[in-house]
Amino acid sequence: MSQEIDILSRITTDFASLRDAEKKVAELIFADIEFVTEASIGEIAQRAGVSDASVTRFARAIGCTNVRDLKTRLTRALAAGRRFIQEATPEDSSSVVYDIATQTLALNRELLAQADVAGAVEQLDKARQILVFGAGGGSSILCQEFQFRLVRLGYAICAYPQALLPRMVASTLEPNDVVVVLSVTGYTPEMVESAQIARQYGAKVIAITAMNSPLADTSDIVLPITSRETDFIYHPSASRYAMLAVIDVLALELAMRHRERSRTKLRRLKLSLDDHRGGDNRQPLGD
């Protein structure tokens, strides 16, 4: 299924080839897109200082059927959020990275304190195998991070940072298996459907996701995350900090459940790494 091109990108690409009158319509759109989505052809023409016919020609020049089609596509672009159209405010800078990380961690610390972390740790600890599903940007990377955290503690765990493979793997599971599904929104169809399939075969499903989402409704245990996305769109999603914090909490709780075993495995891992890379005894364990 083909996806309709972003109309604002199309206008930007075609701008140089437009007639002068059509360029005035394009400039009006970028100056006040909300006005254009609600105004009549005559109102658009008057505001742009062109004829009604120029507005119609502009719509066709950028691939729209007519002005109504143009306004529909502009409305869709606007629905993504004004922050994706307007420039960020001058005071926004790289310092927001630290501010947003601090705010996100504080917000999610309170949220996780109310969740069934103990239940999740119990299910993970007694699982025959742990499978971690994630699709997309942060979820794909962090499902691998979860594997790295637990494999060094001796758990049988495998990450599947893809879209289709989790569905295939879910259909092979047994009741003593545990699936951890990572999804910031909880709406990614591949993750929701994989969780449903896993539960059909008796596996337990732990979701690190948004509350009251389809994935949360499908899971046995929900470890909720949330983030307050700002209008400063150039900053990567803050939800990564929340998800990583949950992963670290689970890894820590599992390590402390079997302190002697964990200490032994971590020591062996440290010796193996030191033999390979050298350095002092304060270097991290493979991070």
Automatic annotation (TrEMBL):
Q: Which GO terms describe its molecular function?
A: carbohydrate derivative binding; DNA binding; DNA-binding transcription factor activity
Query: Which CDD domains would you find in this protein's record?
Result: SIS_RpiR
| Record keywords, A-Z | DNA-binding, Transcription, Transcription regulation
Domain of life where this protein originates = Bacteria
Where the record annotates domain HTH rpiR-type, the positions are: 5-81
GO biological process assignments: carbohydrate derivative metabolic process
Q: Which residue intervals define the domain SIS in the entry? A: 120-260
Q: What Pfam families does this protein's entry cite?
A: HTH_6, SIS
* Stored SUPFAM superfamilies: Homeodomain-like, SIS domain
Protein name (record): Transcriptional regulator
* Organism name: Vreelandella sulfidaeris
